[in-house]
Amino acid sequence: MLENHDMLSPCPFSKGYRIPAQQAWYLLKGFYAYRLFLSCTLWVVYFSPLAASIIDPALQSLFIYTSAAYSLVALLGWLCIIWRKLSYAVQAQLSIFTDIALVTLLMHASGGVSSGVGALMLVSTAAGGLLVGGRCAVLFAAIASLFVFAEHASLYPADEFKSSDYPHAGMLGIGFFMLAILSYLLAKRTEQTELIASQQQKTIISLEELNQYIIQNMQAGIIIIDQYQAITSHNEASPRLLGISHLPDSLPDLSIALTDAFNAWLKNPNENYVMISTLDQEDLQVHFTSLPTQLALFFMITLEDVALYNQRVQQSKLMSLGQLTANIAHEIRNPLGAISHAGQLLAESPALTAEDTRLTDIIQTHTTRMNLIVEEILQLSRRTDSKRECINLEEWLFVYLRTFESESISYQGKIHLSIELGLRTALFDTGHLTQILNNLCENAIKYGSVKDKKILIQVRNCFDHPCIDVVDYGNGVSEASINHLFEPFFTTSNSGTGLGLYISRELAELNQAKLSYHTLEDEQGCYFRLCLASSELRQVNYE
């Protein structure tokens, strides 16, 4: 790529004329190649039968010496270009000046202006416009014209002067100036075109680098394949989402499920979205797109983590739901408070019968339950985004269990903690994790507590993810209720609100985790499993 410091100003009088260094040296090499060719041509002419009709017999020695000098200067100039002993400006100006001077001597040795040798200086003046440019090009044209007139005037004392040659000299001088100006304009135009092309090249390279940076740092995986299903390129997120270290060379070697989905899409392009599971049981949403080009047909496969997608949906849903429920809860709390206060006043009346007192107790019980529901609904409106951090589960859970048991005497000695050796750390919002475990442990103690068995909090790795199981040995949940377990306001208890598990699952998905219900296979009981995101597998924080 050409930078500003690679631009040359060959002529000190041409401040606005700059050509790229590489192009300038290339042009100078071309001019010296011409000089070497011309020097060889001069020797061929001298030893050919044409020499008698071209060279003045009285000036053969001048022709020989000038030709030798021209060959020597051309050879030395070529060596200077290779070794870069002189700067470009000095070498370009010296080459043009010596060319004009030596061609003038050759013209004199060949019979003057009428010989036509002076036309060789047209090449020199044109080179001045291309190599040097600006005022220097006009200066060299003026020097060439003066040399031509001086050579013609030198013939006056020798009685060889012909006044008819003056128009030839004048036309030759005009040609020098016109050719110098035209070559300068051509070089200027070429320079501008080169600069525009260079700027466009820089822009294209910058855009390409920017596109590559954006693609490589996308959270979604991008895989490009050709029509033979060979993988041509991919970004860094692709192997990470697929749970592998690197991608193979072809799509069938990568995933049979992904290959089948791609072939099905080729048959039915309208079905361009599909869900697949990776080796570590992560769900990915896959999107197929065709990328036709002039030379070949390519396809783009986009992989998106469903957990990340659900997290975004949950954030948006909780925000909207929170605003709605806050307004509803506010409208409910005011009349609910009035009913509760009226019931308390009514219960204090000494004229109430026992049956009326029971009715006031029912009022207080249900207003308390309604107030609890309102409090839990208001938690949705106050929900903040997940602020995940790296948690050492063993240390954190020991502290959590001590804190949980200290909150109530009925909790003490009811829970046993078991942690698998070599457990990795996890990414989770500690406040959200505390709220989820509080709800699961309280439900286990309330509904699944058995006299001879403790509630078990078991932590182990499942598919390279740390999972927390809250196990109880009660009767569990009926099969009819399992499908509705995480729905809002669904409860099997007369005193429950039906929001605890719903909020726990929402918080889990907000942290890219999964909360699920399972039954024990070998004995009576059930457990809730919370699978967390491992900090070692998820190096990128998606929040």
Explain the overall architecture:
The structure is a single chain. This protein has 16 helices and 15 strands. With 543 residues, the protein is of the alpha+beta class. The chain has 4 domains: 202 residues, no CATH class; 87 residues, 2-Layer Sandwich (Beta-Lactamase), CATH 3.30.450; 72 residues, Helix Hairpins, CATH 1.10.287; 146 residues, Heat Shock Protein 90 (2-Layer Sandwich), CATH 3.30.565. A hairpin with a 5-residue loop joins strand 5 and strand 6. The longest helix has 52 residues. The protein starts with 6 loop residues before the first strand and ends in a 9-residue tail after the last strand.
Secondary-structure blueprint of this entry?
Blueprint: E1 7-8, E2 19-20, H1 21-47, H2 51-54, H3 60-83, H4 88-109, H5 120-132, H6 134-153, H7 165-216, E3 221-226, E4 231-234, H8 237-242, H9 251-254, H10 256-267, E5 273-277, E6 283-292, E7 297-305, H11 306-347, H12 354-381, E8 389-391, H13 393-406, E9 415-419, E10 426-428, H14 430-447, E11 455-462, E12 465-472, H15 479-482, H16 500-510, E13 514-519, E14 526-531, E15 533-534
Helix pairs in contact: 1-3, 1-4, 3-4, 4-5, 4-6, 5-6, 5-7, 6-7, 11-12, 11-16, 14-16
Distance between the termini: 39 Å
Overall average pLDDT: 78
Helix content: 55-70%
Mind describing the biggest β-sheet? 5 strands, antiparallel
Number of extended strands: 15
Structural class: alpha+beta
Kindly summarize this structure in a few lines.
Helices cover 55% and strands 15% of the residues. The protein is an alpha+beta fold. 28% of the residues are buried.
